[in-house]
Amino acid sequence: MGNANVSNVTIRPEEAAFFADLAKDWWNPRGKMASLHQVNPVRMEFIRDAIDAHWNGDPRSVKPLLGKTALDIGCGAGLVCEPLARLGADVTGVDASAENAAVAASHAEASGLDIRYMAGEVGSLDIGTFDLVTSVEVIEHVADKRAFLADVAARLAPDGLLVMSTPNRTVQSRVLLVGAAEAIGYVPKGTHHWSDFITPEEFEDLLAEVGLEVTDRRGIAYGLGKGLHLSDNEALNYILSARRSN
Fold first, then answer.
1. pTM, whole model, 2 decimals?
2. Which is nearest to 97 in space by CA: 35, 155, 18, 152?
3. Which of 217, 211, 223 is nearest to 239 (CA)?
4. CATH number of the domain to which 142 belongs
5. Which of 75, 112, 81, 80 is nearest to 97 (CA)?
6. Is the CB of residue 103 less than 8 Å from the CB of residue 94?
7. Higher pLDDT, 107 or 180
8. Residue 15's pLDDT is what?
9. Which has the closest alpha carbon to 68: 79, 44, 52, 49?
């Protein structure tokens, strides 16, 4: 959340301001961003599996990203960057909000993690390419998704791995992720705009247009007794991995 894009496709200013206002509360697991803390382990489970599959790694390895570079686009206050660093990666986080980047850098330093954070638009930053690129719950906040994905693809090394997640555009997500979630305070009001959600089929088509092919896709669902978990049910939210097309 709180992503940055190219200059002519930047996240809408009001959305950048919205997430900047939440910056100081981002690391509070019981605060306004509590939903992110609950879903983050599920995302990281998928990311770890994707890493092992992509590089034929040992699932028992503590640092499967040792010697590799990682970029998190729309990094917020660093909820994905920090686990990636602990997996051994040399991590860079980029966010449209300077407030988010500052909070992320402060938290990483306090945690003893060496992570580079940058505020700005990923398409305009001269940062090269990365072995792993992640961007979770970001594309739904982007005005021009096609141009944004072109910038994302440009940051991916030739043998790189991309992981992205986003809400699906379904009746269920409109009722639960936008209506009910905001009504009960599960997410801050104004977090989601249902019309900006994209379906998995639309997402895969957009990725294909920028030369990427999806290698795996899972739903993120909620179940009584199971909480949030990876699932075949993509009605609310889904996460995918991709690589350059052959």
1. 0.87
2. 18
3. 217
4. 3.40.50.150
5. 75
6. no
7. 107
8. 59
9. 52
Joined together, the tokens standing for residue 245 give: 């097309």
Residue 162 lies in a domain: yes
Amino acid identity, position 221: A
CA distance 93 to 75: 5
Is 136 marked as a binding-site residue?
A: yes
Identify any residues that bridge with 167 across adjacent strands, giving them in sequence order: 237
pLDDT in tens, 54-74: 999 999 999 999 999 999 999
Residue given tokens 């997410």 in the structure block: 187
**What's 12's DSSP letter?**
P
Q: Is the pLDDT of residue 146 over 80?
A: yes
Structure tokens at 1: 């959340």
Res 138: pLDDT? 92
Query: Structural domain of residue 158, as residue ranges?
Result: 13-244
- Say how many domains are in the chain: 1
The closest alpha carbon to 49, from 67, 37, 61, belongs to 61
The pair phi, psi for residue 194, each rounded to 5°, is -55, -35
What is the C-alpha to C-alpha distance for residues 129 and 126, in angstroms, rounded to an integer? 9
Which amino acid belongs to residue 224?
L
SS (H, E, C) 59-73: CCCCCCCCCCEEEEE
Q: Decide if 3 is inside a domain.
A: no
33-48 tens-digit pLDDT: 667 778 899 999 999 9
Q: What is the pLDDT of residue 178?
A: 62
Tell me whether residue 95 is annotated as binding: yes
Residue 197 reports pLDDT greater than 70: yes
